[in-house]
Amino acid sequence: MNKKEFLDELCRRLRYASVDEAQRLVAFVTESIDDRIEEGMTEEEAVTAVGSIDDLVREVSGEAKVETFTDEVAVKGAHRRDYVVSADGVETIEVTEGGGDVNFRVSRDDKIHVHVTESERQRYIVTKKNGVVSVTKEQLGGKDINFGFGLFVFRADFNNNTDVIVDVPENLRAAIDCKTGSGDVGYSLRSALSVSLTTGSGDIDVDSCAVGGRAELKTGSGDINVDELMAESIEITAASGDADLKSVTAKALKLSAISGDIEVDEAFIADKAVVKSVSGDVNLCMASPLKVGSFESVSGDLDIGLYGHGEEYSVSAKSVSGDVDVPADKPEAPNAVRARTTSGDIRIEIAR
Amino acid sequence: MDTQLRRGMLDVCVLRSLTGGESYGYAIIKDISPYVTISESTLYPILKRLEGAGCLTVRSAEHNGRLRKYYCITDRGRERISDFLTEWEDIMRAYSFVKEGIK
Fold first, then answer.
1. Does pLDDT of A162 surpass 70?
2. Predicted ipTM?
3. Mean pLDDT value across chain A
4. Rg (CA), chain A
5. Among 1.10.3080.10, 2.60.40.10, 1.10.3720.10, 1.10.10.10, what is the CATH number of B3-102?
6. Is residue A88 less than 8 Å (CB to CB) from chain B?
7. Do B42 and A34 touch (CB under 8 A)?
8. Contact A63/B39, CB-based, under 8 Å?
């Protein structure tokens, strides 16, 4: 076995080790082989002298508690792989996926696990540097198959766009940044410093999450579903999809959609809520008093429930052709509720 | 040999190889080999463990167009050696006592 073959095989056997650990060991072994060659040994002699790959891998496994996952052949020529990364010093986790789904889950141990499917056509580069864990997909050339019928040619891309699962330890509070082209994003981490989830056409699902800073969710044509989200500020953009939120708590909320509907059940917004839709309906239930509220739709209907007690607030609800409906539960509270529509009906209801 | 004992002994042998000045992986192996059996797979975790315990420091330096890691013993590393020697004095006393009984 020559040096390259030996190191390739060592890397292959270390694929379940943490990225840091694998890099360190490979560098250590490479240095030793080079030193032996420099002293006059041939590549083969130097490789034999550094010992067996089994021993090297076993020593690292013993120290780093590497998961002993076996390849599960999902598709012919593809395998599931689990990259194990130590969570020590991690401040940011970045995931960039071309088209597959990305799921963030709570890890069962104190390490970050990145589960991916790799094949000859795609692999993932998982790195940890300066507190940033980065997961990037690398396409190694897709196989196009052409079906020809006379003048018409149908092309099918046989890249496997399978999902990425990122398991994050429960006690790690990191900034999470995820971008995928067309896949869905699922997020069920309990806590994070900040969260930014972007997908071109997939759905975004967020479940029971507390974010210290900003939470930003963006999709082009998919839907956004949130069930319990607490953050300093929340910004949600769904261009043609619907945004369906249940129990959101923040100082500031910014929500916008073009043609999708917006539905918010129980929003606890302390300062400012800005909600905009072009043709979709807006249905909002503010469960606590807010200071400033601005709700707009061009052709959709607005139904803005203002509940809760206390401070003064200023609310404006506008629609060009839709109906505007503003029920409130506190007679003295709405110091200013302005509702405007060009051709729809307006109803402001104050419960007594 | 008892694994714990062997491990402690190897740690000290590696530290001993650094008392004359900083050294690198392959040179450490060459220095220790006449006395104990050691290979890359054994040395790697030892260096990592000793670094973690503050017994040595590591620096990378250019050597013939590539990077080589150099290890340097710290005061704590020297303490580890003297602790080992003190402990072994006790062990050697016990050894002599046991051996005399066999004669």
1. no
2. 0.89
3. 81
4. 27
5. 1.10.10.10
6. no
7. no
8. no
